[in-house]
Design brief:
Catalytic activity (chains A, B): L-histidinol + 2 NAD(+) + H2O = L-histidine + 2 NADH + 3 H(+)
Oligomer: homodimer
Radius of gyration of chain A: 26 Å
Enzyme class (chains A, B): oxidoreductase
CATH class of the largest domain in chain A: Alpha Beta
CATH topology of the largest domain in chain A: Rossmann fold
Helix content of chain A: 40-55%
Distance between the termini of chain A: 74 Å
Family (chains A, B): Belongs to the histidinol dehydrogenase family.
Keywords (chains A, B): Amino-acid biosynthesis, Histidine biosynthesis, Metal-binding, NAD, Oxidoreductase, Zinc
Cofactor (chains A, B): Zn(2+)
Structural class of chain A: alpha/beta
Number of strands of chain A: 14
Shape of chain A: globular
């Protein structure tokens, strides 16, 4: 059973503040192991990849090639149920269409003074996409990570996925094909991150590495950051549902459980102004848990991190939601639209009673890689801009330099940077004294 | 004297590759100290700030308030030379105008299916801006970090700056006033970062921390990352000049030295197709060094990390420039415009013979906080987006849920996430079997 907090209780602020800072992740210290693996891959390249893949994944690269071939992808696709292939296609088309709207426009202009200025966007040359193996090997995540790269125009998208005992989820390969990934290696763990960052004989290095992974993968990404770019390190997922008493308690319970089944560290929160409804949802959660395949995970998450918060008025939910800054926020209200402008901090907002968060996980079109653990206060979900970079362009003629130069010289000298001052002064024949 | 590399030499690729991976920074391991300071500030708040400020900055908060008052800023401004104030104003107006063009537009729309989708941008609630003390206390950096925040609409901008023996550079306070910073504390080091991230009795916490600092500040920023957002950790600055033989060697030498005077770890690189011009620049560097106040720093940087690269044709400079991915790239060429589209990786491009990089440091209007150490391959300079975050919005009615729901259910089940499937199915009266 999740905790209950009541806005009107005297100790609400204390309990809510404590709730906000609850840690939901045990961070394993795997840095020493990861560092050894990375150093080894840098030193020995493919040979090190072969050793680690044999040891950790039980795959022998003297028998199976590291690279996945087009024929293997064809064969895998034939194994995927047509219904799932069709659903992946629906998702891919919608994700691509939505992300295409995120493509930035260059802004190249001349100001009133005649100074040329510009912001120019270009795709990153090469990105690596990590896909976990086993049960966390989600084809939907392949689409969510690879399609924005493709929309951005990234010329080289490299996917790595561990092949435990040689196996890769066929739907993952199908999704990769749909998303236009043309270079796939069956490697995983810290060794795969090292290979992407530094390159080996087989794998050319990339400039940025994206995608979720276990503690070793996360530590390896932190470790190679700087040499390459990395995306955010995702924490356990969370949902906040703001719901009035007119909802079907079973619908809302189902949404809370959809989040809870991800991970024992996931978090589901309900804020409502209706105590009776809150109880009905709590009861529905217990009832639905009985027939849920992942009940063990979902009930642990709900018990340890779930919360039901009672507020006297739904307006009181707004400041709480902004402090929680949830990855996913459902507004299951009559006039959900009216609340949207008041919400400042949320990864994604799901509006109305017919927009369960799960639609956003798969087929809504928006990205399901979103900021967790309150980081929506300062960061955004994955998008096309994450696969591009902006270059500033500046162009002065002699006239503009004459106009602006003296101010630059004054500032440089006030900062004690005489060589800065001189690089302007020398072009204006001002000599060393400016 | 900088090294010389010749594209036509047999060992060019080996030497160039080694040059690219040269480390220019000694990274001090200050993590243990930083962790102690952060923990202490979290535990003891203002009292810990007072202790560390007394110890490291020689300032006593029982005599001087931690917060800088409006009257103190007025008094500081009166101390700044009018010429410098005027130059700061020129810079501020231009920086603000350029950054205003970076403001993103919300994109709220309904697709052909009637699904509501949206990308909505909001400013971060509160940001902290670290300003170093001493000689690295640059008013221009205050403008570059604070103005984009103001343009983004960040309601609370907090500046921290260490006051060694009570002193703060008056021009820094003048720049803060111009940039609309209304909350300033005379604290620095890891303790200031901890105060911004976790808050104290006097200082409310922020959501993101920006700005450069020494090894302690950088380590503290890494440490609090996750609790708050941080900007990139800037490395030593660098410039790459691509120049033909028609340039005045003295102008180009001045530009190389402007970069070199920053830091012994700074890097200045010239690529040219004219060996005679290369020698003339090298000679001009040596000549100009003789009268440079910061000659000690500049000559060390030029000696240890400077490079002159000869190419047979200026076209050969392009792939090298893309591999170097310089923070600053000057194109001192007749037809500089023609080269711009070929340059994929650069923080900022300075076009033509009359656009020394220094203009971009101060008064060009673009931001001078740019990606260093080859990170322009995957990241961008500071801009308005760094002070905002994007929230996705998704809205389905019952009709859209009927259309898209089955695909979501199919994908959820294929990923083994039955509770996901049910949260959609229950709304479509499909029951547990979908």
């Amino acid at each position: 059973m999740a905790i209950r907090l009541d806005f009107l209780d005297g100790d609400f602020e204390t309990r809510f503040a404590a709730f906000l800072t609850t840690k939901r992740e045990v961070s394993e210290d795997v840095n020493a192991t990861v560092r050894t693996i990375i150093d080894d891959v840098r030193l020995r390249g493919d040979a090190a990849l072969a050793d680690y893949s044999k040891r950790f994944d039980g795959i022998d690269f003297s028998e199976t090639a590291m690279a996945v071939t087009e024929a293997e992808i064809d064969a895998a696709i034939a194994l995927v149920e047509p219904e799932v292939l069709g659903a992946l296609k629906v998702a891919a088309v919608r994700i691509e269409a939505h992300h295409r709207r995120q493509l930035p426009k260059d802004d190249i202009y001349e100001d009133a003074m005649g100074v040329g200025l510009g912001s120019r966007w270009t795709p990153i040359d090469a990105v690596g996409l990590y896909v976990p193996g086993g049960t966390a090997s989600y084809p939907s995540s392949v689409l969510m990570n690879a399609l924005p790269a493709r929309v951005a125009g990234v010329p080289r998208i490299v996917m790595v996925v561990p092949a435990k005992d040689g196996q890769i989820n066929p739907a993952v390969l199908a999704a990769a094909r749909m998303a236009g990934v043309e270079e796939i290696y069956r490697i995983g763990g810290a060794q795969a991150i090292a290979a992407l960052a530094y390159g080996t004989e087989t794998i050319a290095p990339v400039a940025k590495i994206m995608g979720p992974g276990n503690a070793y993968v996360a530590a390896a990404k932190r470790h190679v950051f700087g040499t390459v770019g990395i995306d955010m390190i995702a924490g356990p997922s969370e949902v906040l549902v703001i719901a009035d008493g007119s909802n079907d308690p079973d619908w809302i319970a189902a949404d809370l459980l959809a989040q809870a089944e991800h991970d024992t560290g996931a978090q589901s929160i309900l804020i409502t102004n209706d105590a009776g409804f809150a109880t009905a949802v709590e009861n529905a959660v217990e009832r639905q848990l009985k027939t849920l395949p992942r009940a063990h995970t979902a009930s642990a998450s709900w018990r340890d991190f779930g919360a039901v918060i009672l507020v006297p008025d739904l307006e009181d939910a707004v400041p709480l939601a902004n402090r929680i800054a949830a990855e996913h926020l459902e507004l299951a209200l009559d006039d959900a639209d009216a609340m949207i402008p008041k919400i400042r901090n949320a990864g994604a907002i799901f509006v109305g009673r017919h927009t369960p968060e799960v639609i956003g996980d798969y087929v809504g079109g928006s990205n399901h890689v979103l900021p967790t653990a309150r980081s929506a206060r300062f960061s955004s979900g994955l998008g096309v801009l994450d696969y591009m970079k902006r270059t500033s362009i500046l162009r002065l003629g002699v006239e503009q330099l004459r106009t602006l130069g003296p101010a630059a010289i004054a500032l440089a000298r006030s900062e004690g940077l005489e060589a800065h001052a001189r690089s302007v002064a020398i072009r204006l024949n001002l000599g060393d004294e400016g």
